[in-house]
Amino acid sequence: MNTMTYTTQHIWTWWIALYLFFGGLGAATLTITFLTDMYCRPHRKLVLWGALSGVVLLAISSAVLFGHLLHHTAVIYVLNPLVFIFKPDSWIAWGTQFILWMMVWGMLYALPYMRETPLFMRIPLVRSILQWPLVSWLSACCMKRRRIVGWLASINGIGTAVYTGLLIQSFPAVALWHNPGVPLLFTVSAFSTAFAYLLLLLNIFITDENDQDIRHRYERMDLILIATELVILFSFFNYTLSGSESGYRSAQLLWGDWGWLIGFIGFGLLVPFMIELRGVTKGWRGRFPTVAAAVLVLMGGYLLRHYFMYAGVYAYPW
């Protein structure tokens, strides 16, 4: 009779957690920023801060992944848009295309605002690039078709956020990952961390009193997303306990680990939930509680992915 051996995988570790965290955060940040600018009110500072930092986060995410590829020449294949024809089941290729086009459309959306910002025009090299005839023409086209460019960026941003969960869900050997709820969990977490990140920008770097309404909206949305994340995690808890032996072993690792319970569930979800609930219902004097909650949400977003990698258990018979 064969016996089953259970072991944690040791290939996808902290580096893939960073890739998923920065990728989801950057994509969701760009999406929220552009939708705010298109449908709440035009906000040049928010677009510049959100778009440029979002593109940087996506670039860091891609660099982490490509730096750990077994064959670095594989970058050529995943960057090729025709990869869908030859390898349509490659989720990394899909994700790379989403990230690439998210960065392209994101920079095009921010381009008209960059040309209106004195800071960029004071930098000689940047000023000369922004004054090129082709760049001027692109800027005028993007401003005229602002919502089309914004939606193209947002669609790719949503695709990137969903993809981070689909990539993990595509591994049938690990019961914790091979769950249809994983893409939903990672998407909700990506947008929650993005709202938290934008709250940091609005409370530390963009200190405009006219943004009070946007801050309240972001805080309410983050509160709803944290609550949704807690419900999904409770469902995961029941799923892993009543499913396969591999899932049960993953549940033992997660729910018996103080880093998961206190670091992620406690300080990454419950504490910021209570802080934001108080902020939404009664408000706070000063910005420190909101900033603290945002930092904790960002910490929790990384810890979710870190412990998901750590608790990936697979089984094999002897």
From TrEMBL:
InterPro entries in alphabetical order: Electron_transfer_protein, NrfD-like
Membrane-crossing segments per the record: 12-35, 47-71, 91-111, 148-169, 181-202, 223-241, 253-275, 287-308
Subcellular location: Cell membrane
Mode of membrane association: Multi-pass membrane protein
Gene3D superfamilies linked to this entry: Formate dehydrogenase/DMSO reductase domain
Cross-referenced Pfam families: NrfD
Keywords in alphabetical order: Cell membrane, Membrane, Transmembrane, Transmembrane helix
GO cellular component: plasma membrane
Family that this chain belongs to: Belongs to the NrfD family.
Protein name in UniProt: Polysulfide reductase
Organism of derivation: Sulfurimicrobium lacus
